[in-house]
Design brief:
The chain contains 4 helices and no strands. It has 71 residues and is an all-alpha fold. Helix 1 crosses helix 4. The longest helix is centred in the first third of the chain and has 18 residues.
């Protein structure tokens, strides 16, 4: 899922973040996946993508928790 961010930190706006959480939770529900199945581009290629979640591992973990709450 491609997401835009407003600056070089890679941090999403709250609207982008909320939309991403909602979409990922919906996809997990639709395909019977858990948040453990959600990976970053970084996890496959080593590319710093999404940058903010690569640079801030705690933010990535929080994102996965937010996805679980929406499911």
């Amino acid at each position: 899922i491609e997401c835009c961010h407003p600056d070089e930190t890679g941090k999403f706006t709250s609207k982008t973040y909320d939309s991403l959480v909602q979409l990922v939770a919906w996809l997990c529900n639709k395909y019977g996946l858990s948040s453990d199945s959600v990976i970053r581009h970084y996890d496959v290629t080593g590319k710093a993508c999404p940058k903010y979640f690569v640079d801030n591992e705690d933010a990535w973990k929080e994102f996965l928790k937010d996805v679980d709450k929406k499911k």
